[in-house]
Amino acid sequence: MKVLKIIFIVIGVLILIPIIAFSGILIYDSYYESKFMNIEIPENMRFEKPKEQLGYSNINSLTQDRIEVTGNGYFGYNFHMWHKPIEKGEIYVKAIELTQNIELSKPELENRTKNKISDLSNDYKLYEGESLIYEGTFEQFYPVRFEMWFKSKETGIEKKLAEKKYLIDGWDR
Fold it and tell me: Is the link from the previous residue into 143 a cis peptide, with omega within 30 of 0?
C-alpha cells in the first residue's frame, strides 16, 4: 500500500512539473509582451513607419553610412545598409525600443542581418539582412531605433555607424 502511494505521488509530481513550467512560461511571455502594448509615443520625436519597399536610392551620392528599413511586423523587416568597406569585419543591425531602452530580438537580429566584409572598396556598398522583431504585436506600434554596427575582424572592436528611428509593430506568435 505504501509503495502504491509513493508511485501515485511520483506520477502526480511528474505530471504537475510540466504543467507548472508551461503555465510559468505563458505568464512570463504575457508579462514581457505587455511591455510593448499601448506605449505612449513621445510627442517631441518624429517617426516614420517602414515602407513596404525600398525606393530608388542613388548610392553614388552617399557621403556617410546609412540604414533603411522596409517591411512590417507580420512578414518581417528588411534591412538595407550602405557602408564604405575600408576595413574587414562584419556589419549588422541592433534594435532598441526607445521609451524603455530595451534591446529587441537579440541575438536573432544580429545573426540574421550579419554581413561579412572581406572586399575593401572606396565606394559605398549595399548590405542586406532580414528578420522578424518578436517583441510586440500586430498593429500595436512603438518607437524603435535601428542601429547599424561594424565589428572589426582585426581588433574585435564594435562601433555604431548609423541609426534611424521608426514606428514598428511586432510579430504575434
Answer: no
- Per the structure block, which three cell numbers stand in for 85? 568597406
Q: 14 in a domain, yes or no? A: no
- Number of domains composing the chain: 1
Contacts of 33 (CB under 8 A, 6+ apart): 135, 136, 137
Cell numbers given for 139: 498593429
| CATH code of the domain covering residue 99 | 2.60.40
Give me the pLDDT at residue 31, please: 56
- Whole-angstrom Cα distance, residue 12 to residue 3? 14
Within a domain: 20:
no
Task: Answer yes or no: is 127 within a domain.
Answer: yes
Q: Where are the alpha helices (DSSP H) in the chain?
A: 2-34, 108-113
pTM: 0.77
pLDDT of residue 28: 54
